[in-house]
Design goal:
InterPro entries: Thioredoxin-like_sf, Thioredoxin_CS, Thioredoxin_domain. This is Thioredoxin family protein. Keywords: Redox-active center, Signal. The chain is an alpha+beta fold. Helices cover 45% and strands 15% of the residues. The strands form 2 sheets. A 4-stranded mixed sheet has the order 2-1-3-4, with helices on one face.
């Protein structure tokens, strides 16, 4: 009986571990689901690469979800998170293909949060990289992450102005919330 119980317990742990390792949707699946929803709702897709340990990631989420900003973002974006760069022992939280997607869009070595904006067809229309004026999305740039400095927030507001119908007052409200005090 003890032997049977031990085997059952071992099998259960193995199954639970296997499930935990594959329970996160792939980055491709997340993007596909988000673009489908964005097409139905006439919105853009805002993908945020993050990790559970990342304080700046939590700050960005908190600001985007606060009373001043939540509706502004929700009305214009389908927001999704892809977990990458998790701490040892928490790798099971990562979305398969998340790191590869981040690298595809010049995020390798740029840190997190790292964010991308897609249209409803899955085309990249903007990202978190600050580049020289006139440089295209294919050129390298510096990650603004969770924008906090005047320069980073100015880039973020510029991106929002280009990708949404937000008006000057709404953009100013977002700017006010993101500037680190």
């Amino acid at each position: 009986m003890k032997h049977t119980l031990a085997l059952f317990f071992a099998a259960f742990l193995l199954a639970a571990t296997s499930f935990a390792q594959s329970s996160q949707p792939s980055a491709e699946a997340v993007l596909k689901e988000a673009t489908t929803q964005a097409a139905k709702e006439h919105k853009k897709v805002f993908i945020i690469f993050h990790a559970s340990w990342c304080g700046w990631c939590h700050r960005m989420d908190s600001i985007m979800a606060n009373a001043d900003c939540k509706k502004l973002f929700a009305d214009n974006f389908v927001i999704r998170h892809l977990t990458v760069q998790e701490a040892k022992g928490k790798e099971h939280l990562e979305n398969p293909g998340g790191a590869a997607m981040m690298e595809k869009y010049q995020g390798k070595g740029k840190g997190i949060p790292f964010w991308l904006i897609f249209d409803a067809k899955g085309n990249l229309v903007a990202d978190c990289l600050m580049r020289p004026e006139g440089a295209g999305l294919d050129k390298p740039g510096e990650n603004t992450g969770c924008p906090a400095t005047k320069e980073e927030v100015a880039h973020f507001v510029k991106v929002l102005k280009q990708t949404t119908p937000l008006n000057t007052n709404q953009l100013a409200l977002i700017e006010k919330n993101f500037i680190k005090k």
